[in-house]
Write a structure and sequence with these properties.
Layout (H helix, E strand, L loop, with lengths): L2 H4 E4 L7 E5 L19 H4 L9 H12 L3 E4 L21 E2 L2 E2 L8 H24 L5 E8 L13 E4 L6 H13 L4 E3 L11 H5 L6 E8 L6 H19 L4
Parallel strand pairs: 2-3, 2-6, 6-9, 7-8
Antiparallel strand pairs: 1-3, 4-5, 7-9
Helix pairs in contact: 3-7, 5-7
Length: 247
């Protein structure tokens, strides 16, 4: 499978210092993976375990407002998760948020390696090549999160900004701006920790000294096109103003 089929490149000729990526843009399952069916019902494939609900639309809307390019994955995170290191034990999930993934229950290293070669590495190769062509880059990784995991408390945040201790300059500045204007709590490394060794930001930004941030948006706010556009209109000026602190 070629890199072009593993990812969608949105606005490739745009010259903004921002480059956006969306690791969990799609819930599609390639035919070469168990005949295109992971053995889950449609309801499960439509929720957060299969992809980041609303994140693809938000990424495109945000890229349009920033006049920036974006790279989006084209397969479900349950096939293989591009936001994990190659040897991370959650790279191919057998169970997620209490749901067993039948096609992954007995997956062996041979099949994992095939998915790495067919999907994971071409996506990362395309993103790396795209970033290498640019001198000034802020990598913005766009994700969404479910309001409540099964058996857990409701999450209070509408937006969370994730970052690594290796370089939190841009993210911390963005958090300050968001908190100055938002009436809702803005998560600082919430609802998740902002760094996993070998994740997308780690390998494409931190390892190269590029400014970066990871934006998590609660998925009930961006499930529809209007919500995606409204959130993009809120976030775009915050990102642009933060950029001006660093260039």
């Amino acid at each position: 499978m070629t890199a072009e089929k593993c990812c969608e490149i949105w606005g490739p000729t745009r010259s903004s210092p921002f480059v956006l990526c969306c690791d969990h843009a799609s819930n599609a399952v390639p035919v070469s993976v168990n005949g295109g069916d992971l053995g889950l019902p449609a309801d499960d494939m439509d929720r957060h375990i299969a992809y980041d609900v609303g994140a693809a639309g938000l990424t495109r809307a945000l890229a349009d407002l920033l006049d920036a390019p974006a790279i989006l994955s084209c397969w479900s995170r349950l096939v293989i998760d591009p936001n994990r290191a190659e040897r991370d034990p959650t790279l191919v999930r057998r169970i997620y948020d209490g749901t067993v993934v039948p096609a992954n229950r007995h997956v062996d290293q041979i099949e994992i390696d095939r998915r790495l070669i067919s999907y994971y590495r071409p996506y990362h190769d395309a993103l790396a090549a795209f970033l290498a062509e640019r001198e000034t880059v802020v990598l913005v990784s766009v994700h969404s999160f479910t309001p409540c995991l099964r058996g857990r408390l409701q999450r209070p945040w509408q937006v969370g900004i994730l970052h690594s201790q290796r370089d939190q300059r841009f993210s911390k500045a963005l958090i300050r701006r968001l908190r100055a204007v938002s009436t809702a709590p803005v998560g600082d490394n919430e609802p998740y920790s902002g760094h996993l060794p070998g994740d997308t930001v780690d390998r494409h930004a931190l390892d190269h000294g590029r400014h970066n941030t990871l934006i998590e948006v609660r998925n009930d706010l961006i499930g529809e096109v209007k919500g995606q556009r409204d959130m993009a209109m809120f976030l775009a000026p915050m990102l642009q103003q933060t950029l001006e602190e660093f260039i």
